[in-house]
Amino acid sequence: MSDTHAQTVPFVRDTMLPSAAPPVRESGAIRWLRTNLFSGPVNTVLTLLGALIIWFLVSTFWDWFAHSVWNASSLNECRAIIAATWGEDARGACFAVIRERWNQYVFGFYPVELYWRPTMTFGLLMVALAPVLFSASLSIRRVVLGITAVVTLWAMVVLGAPAGWLIFAAAVLVAGLVASERNISWMLPFSLVYPLLGVWFLWGGTLWGPIFVLVGPLLGWLAWRALSRVSPMLATVVAILVTVLFWLVLAGDAARDAEALLPLSIDAVRSDRFGGFLLSLTIGVAGIALSLPLGIVLALARQSDMFLIKSLAVIFIEFIRGVPLITLLFVASLLLNYFLPPGTNFDIILRVIIMVTIFAAAYMAEVIRGGLAALPKGQYEAADALGLDYWKAQRLIVLPQALKISIPGIVSTFIGMFKDTTLVTFVGLYDPLKSMSDAVRANVEWKGIYWEPFIFVGAIFFLICFGMSRYSMYLERRLQRDHR
Amino acid sequence: QEGSTLAQVKERGELNCGVNTGLVGFAAPDASGNWTGFDVAFCRALAAAVLGDPAKVKFVPTTGQTRFTALSSGEVDVLARNSTWTYSRDTDLKLDFIGVNYYDGQGFMVRSDLGVTSAKELDGATICIQTGTTTELNLADYFRANNMTYTPVNIDSNAEGEQQYMAGACDAYTTDASGLAATRAAFADPETHIILPEIISKEPLGPAVRHGDSNWGDIARWTLNALIAAEEYGVTSRNIEELVRSSENPEVQRLLGTTDELGAMMGLDAEWARRAILAGGNYGEIFAANIGEQTPIGLARGLNAQWTQGGLLYAPPFR
Amino acid sequence: MLVNDQRYRSLTFQVIVFILVMAAAWWLVDNTIRNLALMGKSFDFGFLFQRAGYDIPQTPIPYTADDSHLRASVVGLLNTLIVAVLGCIAATVLGVIVGVARLSKNWLFARLMTVFVEIFRNMPLLLWILIVYAIFTEILPPPNAFRGEAATSGMILFDHVALTNRYTALPTLAMTNDPGSLDLGARITFNWATIAFVVVLVGGWFARRMIASWAQDVQDRTGSRPTTWWMSLAVMIVPSLLLIWYFGLHLEPPTLQGFNFTGGLNVSNSLVALWLALTLYTAAFIAEIVRAGILAVSRGQSEAAFALGLRPNRTMSLVILPQALRVIIPPLISQYLNLTKNSSLAIAVGYMDLRGTLGGTTLNQTGRELEAIVLMMLTYLALSLIISAGMNVFNARVKLKER
Amino acid sequence: MEHIERRIDRSQMTVSDEVAIDIRNMNKWYGTFHVLRDIDLTVHKGERIVIAGPSGSGKSTLIRCINRLEEHQAGHIVVDGVELTSDIKNIDKVRSEVGMVFQHFNLFPHLTVLENCTLAPIWVRKVPRKQAEATAMRFLEKVKIPEQAGKYPGQLSGGQQQRVAIARSLCMQPKIMLFDEPTSALDPEMIKEVLDTMIELAEEGMTMICVTHEMGFAQAVANRVIFMDQGQIVEQNNPTDFFNNPKSERTKLFLSQILGH
Amino acid sequence: MEHIERRIDRSQMTVSDEVAIDIRNMNKWYGTFHVLRDIDLTVHKGERIVIAGPSGSGKSTLIRCINRLEEHQAGHIVVDGVELTSDIKNIDKVRSEVGMVFQHFNLFPHLTVLENCTLAPIWVRKVPRKQAEATAMRFLEKVKIPEQAGKYPGQLSGGQQQRVAIARSLCMQPKIMLFDEPTSALDPEMIKEVLDTMIELAEEGMTMICVTHEMGFAQAVANRVIFMDQGQIVEQNNPTDFFNNPKSERTKLFLSQILGH
Ligand SMILES: Nc1ncnc2c1ncn2[C@@H]1O[C@H](COP(=O)(O)OP(=O)(O)OP(=O)(O)O)[C@@H](O)[C@H]1O
Ligand SMILES: Nc1ncnc2c1ncn2[C@@H]1O[C@H](COP(=O)(O)OP(=O)(O)OP(=O)(O)O)[C@@H](O)[C@H]1O
Ligand SMILES: [Mg+2]
Ligand SMILES: [Mg+2]
């Protein structure tokens, strides 16, 4: 009986069975319901619970939404309309406040006749971002730039932009679209000068200011070119010195003189006119743009094997991460003047941007450090063996990979920072959430209106933040697919 | 002189004026960001006196917590934010109050259906109060002195205080009586709220400047005095041009710079006071336009009448 | 050239940076000194010992307006800690529930939790704080709605708790046999009964541990684990019950007297709203962390456990959780850190935390912004350093051993 | 036969008449995709069955149905006299009789090798720890790595890990062992170690079902080779006939690919 | 000689008198651990040197010292007439003359194969992109994977990746190539491809130092085999004598292990 093959019944199938449909209760909607909603007692209870929650939410808020009033000039009028239309006891939303005051929530106290300027600024921002953010996918670029172009131009027309500027914006947008079809990196120079242009569009004043700000690095670069043969380190130091000195000593006067010679200016708008989402976006975008490079530098410093540099970076990062943002904002608004030479006084928005940047940069540094640490040592060695110096190795080999790994973290830092722009309310700036709503409520007509502004502002924040997080997920997936 | 506040303001071409973030009647931005109010008017008058243009003011909204720092750190040149002149603020906080533009006192507002008619009946009540104000200290002192207890509800801004009070989250709202009146006036049903008779403190509200620059202090002080004196002498924004030409009153002539050049003593020109008065009118006009009985705020002059009318306003002589 | 020498290059660079940093620091300090001199102020913490003069609604340790600013600051710090600890606990519980529910096979429930997470993560915390606070003030009834015959609102939980738009009025614990208090000086006292309860609870906890290790021992010897839950329950509860009986502990419901409920503990809405908003907001983040942690344990692990015959709940406790926790704990602790820092938004609802006392009223009444803010930042910094030190210890302990 | 060098002792490899696993007319769908079609399979105690077939043919699914890691939708599976239904009692009974070794080992990385091996005996079989550890050490010796008992899986090589996985299953003293491509994630040197262990098991008379592409192993050890394609059993035979004289076209094609490679 | 099948053309394999690398009395410590002890080694242009030795004997460390991936603490290393000191200029010069191929390839995963090959020429040698790409394609053809130029390293097999790594080094047109166990991370089938490439290089007269356990390669190509143990050069000889007639006991032991295996 020890024959191994004793029990084998040879079997050969000569006709292959066709694929059959699953039994009824195993397919279609029934199966879906059974497996997804009622697959066991616990699950059934959960489903009922979920349904209960939804029913509760809908039944509580439905009436309120359904009875909303969009056309009224005061809360009392709203209430009167609701009472008249849906009966005395009806409760309803009064979105008329949004309709009446949307501009305040969006533009703050920016001069009404100049609303087109922030509109154009943020429209062109998309063009400037295209080479950076949407570089890989033509179809996405097409959609984003196309929509941006249409919306921006339409909004500018509606807001009464002068024809010259309309043409300018149209030209840039079209250039962006064309470049996007051909080679999006053509837009890089625009992306580089955009920060200065954006500042000029928003705050106005003379164009010579931004121009001379730009001249500084240009001179620095020339100095670097001239000296880099001698010693790259010396050249870098000199270049930075030249730039900073130019900015500090010459740029202001030069801009004033040039303006006197050839006036090139648009209406100036002061910082105290900024408010609402214009303020949030300005702080947010500036903070994002500045905190990334600063965060990279901090992360590299923290990863460096130079003890002193590393310790300084650690102290800085841990300090910033250890204190709440609003204490930093208080520093910006209350203490900064202690630390600067007597009599210096600079713009509160700028100060807030600096603090927000520093705060986000510390978090960014930790995120990027994670990415750096995830890189295998072999990458550094290979770069060394090929003769790349430290900076080239970082720029060409290390950072591209580290940043890619860190994308989710970087984007959530951005999102966190954008949400945190609401905290500027505590230093007397008109954020869209609290200060602006308080300002609106300070008027007799809208006293007592709470929910509608919250919903409006919250919805906009949600759209922007949710959009960013989805975009980062898309980016992550795409980068994963590439290179594999 | 170099580095003085006056020089800085002139150099900048703009006066930085610290105001409330939003208290109707005293300082609040309207839908398009234009500031109006009683304190705002003082800022404009000062700007007119110094810079010749009442529009050259940058209003810096300050909260109860940031106001003094904003002033001492140089962020604002003058603070006109219904702040109470107290000993320690004048000395320890290194501010200089340049006068009183509104004599106020702390009061309580309650719903009339609460059945309370005196502050003495507030034992055990919940009271809304803005943090960082003198009212917070007064309230503590008052209840201790009267052997009563209370629960404070700390709020950050007047708007929030109204919200809490309206919703019944506090039984009483306490702040300066003027503020109470302004708040009550803005209610849909002002009749159902009463302001209790007790005024538990003296609250002389006035603009303040930094300690140490007496010249700038003088300018602010005398701008305020000019507005008060103008009312006393009957100089209004409407008749001022005529008075410049025709006034016989030597005091008025000095005030309007037609005879002595008083302005030069402070580093200003002769017509500084004229411009200050033209900016928004004399004290009485400003009062009437912003918080007077014809406005929704509806404050009576009361203590803030001229001394000649039985009030406390008494501008020192211009000579 | 020194900079071309590998050995000295980094040294040179470091020296340059050090000089620059020192110069910058010196510049800042010099400016500060000059500015202070210009304003005629000094840098001096003497103000902390002056009379504070203001009242604080919630005082974990006795405090009156006559106490010093220092004591006011300590009260503020304790308030910060109270909301932070409560928030961390609640956010963890909710976050774990939501995170697990998001992984549930129940389509509806999982979607609902996704919506919860996305909504709370993508809107500013300040918004949630304001909304929750507004819900409390606008929707709950004021205390006088509980008054009289025609009361429009009633107390809940057998007339022991009243939810009002000012506070939640809870019953107090009263004792018929009060053992008196232990005085720690500085007017900080602990009731002996409290101490007794703490001792009994801690003792009970140790007893529970001993029971568990006894059970383990029995299991090791015989293979079957004795049922111990009732013993654990007993050692935790019976002594406490005895104490309750001995001290004659009972609940005294709050009563409406005058304007407010008295005779109970009134937990102010600013605390509850802040706590709730922090909880909801942080729970959304924790849910994601928990979800990622569980997903990080590969499906193969649970399949292997099932194939060995382990039941799902044992699989969870013996295989999945120990692995998931390693992934979950570090980001969880940084969420605790965030929550603690975010509690400084208490300013929006007038909750008097450290920022509200030291960095708010004290700063404002004394005009010592430099000192107050520096002190406040250092306190927050110390808090976070303590928390992250704890995290590092933990990380080092649980690191997976690899080849 | 590249990995198998030694003579195989067939003395214990007896096939009894008792039925270990009985699968009748079993069908399974993933959604609407018909993965397993009318599977009929009877496994007797002591049989060593190798399942082969192209990727995606349902081999893994089939053996995962046997210990109910996957649910079947039609037909019957009876393991050691217990029918697999949704009754949890039955599932537990079956699972504790059937050991399974996965392609990717699925060791518990947070437990030492010894703890991996004693976990289930202690918690499922309620064996005292001492005894569980003794058993575990016995099986670790059998798979030739007793000295690694205190290490963590992450510290072992792939071959060692897979042998721990086998020992872990054996510690439950199962009547039947399922192997799902136990060597396909291993480096060539390590395959031998694992196959040796499996051969030893076979020599001791364990009932085994093994999905593998190691044809040397199949020829040396199996008493039956089953060829699956498109979710069906296309051919089964004893190894000699299966390899030398395949009947179906598909089998021929498959064998030519796999052996030519 | 399992992996080497073809006849090797030795016509170009001439050793010149010029010294390519001169190591004198070199010592290195890791902390207090003495890894390399009194290493003396002169490599002439055109030599093909294989370094063998047990694990941990310091082979990798030695060749990593030659392009200063590790710093030595005593003695002298002169590469192509440039002494390696802490002077960065010298280090840069040496690194651009010495190519290195790592065990784990260390390709840059975010760059295509072509970009991997042109990166260093463009940024270090400042070669115009067009020209760098032409050179790169030439070397990719040489390693027989020109068609993969546009792919990312992650899309290639191990053998292909290692050949890209070789091409990448060659693109810098180095005078000396260092190989650190270039085939030991590869599957057996792929080893051959890489060895072929290395043989071709040798046939063209490249100066090579190669740490490897591929004794077939050593016998076929090397003109000198160096045996290291405990941080010292224990024996060096031409391959024939080295393998057939080892002098030292240690070498014998090592060879018996490695060849018996
Ligand atoms: N959870 C699942 N949901 C849907 N389809 C699945 C699932 N698991 C497996 N399949 C599909 O079922 C088919 C059979 O899968 P199975 O893993 O059993 O194949 P296999 O024969 O083991 O293949 P391999 O040799 O690649 O392991 C495949 O087509 C597979 O794509
Ligand atoms: N960074 C380091 N720090 C401390 N010791 C090290 C370091 N790198 C290597 N070593 C030690 O130096 C010795 C020589 O290492 P090396 O890598 O040169 O050996 P090897 O001959 O290349 O061995 P293998 O064949 O395993 O690659 C080893 O004992 C190793 O443990
Ligand atoms: Mg499979
Ligand atoms: Mg090595």
Automatic annotation (TrEMBL), chain A:
One of its GO terms (molecular function) is transmembrane transporter activity. Pfam families: BPD_transp_1. Keywords: Cell membrane, Membrane, Transmembrane, Transmembrane helix, Transport. It is found in: Cell inner membrane; Cell membrane. InterPro entries: AA_ABC_transptr_permease_3TM, ArtM/GltK/GlnP/TcyL/YhdX-like, MetI-like, MetI-like_sf. Its main location: membrane. GO terms for biological process: amino acid transport. It is a multi-pass membrane protein. PROSITE patterns: ABC_TM1. The chain crosses the membrane at residues 37-58, 120-140, 152-179, 199-222, 234-254, 274-300, 312-336, 348-368, 405-430, 450-471. PANTHER family: INNER MEMBRANE AMINO-ACID ABC TRANSPORTER PERMEASE PROTEIN YHDY, MEMBRANE COMPONENT OF AMINO ACID ABC TRANSPORTER. Belongs to the binding-protein-dependent transport system permease family. HisMQ subfamily. This is Amino acid ABC transporter permease. It comes from Paracoccus haeundaensis. The lineage of its organism: Bacteria, Pseudomonadati, Pseudomonadota, Alphaproteobacteria, Rhodobacterales.
UniProtKB/TrEMBL annotation, chain C:
InterPro entries: AA_ABC_transptr_permease_3TM, ArtM/GltK/GlnP/TcyL/YhdX-like, MetI-like, MetI-like_sf. Keywords: Amino-acid transport, Cell membrane, Membrane, Transmembrane, Transmembrane helix, Transport. It is a multi-pass membrane protein. Residues 77-391 form the ABC transmembrane type-1 domain. The chain crosses the membrane at residues 12-29, 77-100, 112-136, 188-207, 228-251, 271-297, 318-337, 372-394. Its main location: membrane. GO terms for cellular component: ATP-binding cassette (ABC) transporter complex. Belongs to the binding-protein-dependent transport system permease family. HisMQ subfamily. This is ABC transporter permease subunit. It comes from Paracoccus haeundaensis. The lineage of its organism: Bacteria, Pseudomonadati, Pseudomonadota, Alphaproteobacteria, Rhodobacterales.
Automatic annotation (TrEMBL), chains D, E:
Belongs to the ABC transporter superfamily. Keywords: ATP-binding, Nucleotide-binding, Transport. This is Amino acid ABC transporter ATP-binding protein. The keyword Nucleotide-binding applies. Residues 21-255 form the ABC transporter domain. GO terms for molecular function: ABC-type amino acid transporter activity; ATP binding; ATP hydrolysis activity. It holds the Pfam family ABC_tran. PROSITE patterns: ABC_TRANSPORTER_1, ABC_TRANSPORTER_2. It comes from the Bacteria. SMART domains: AAA.
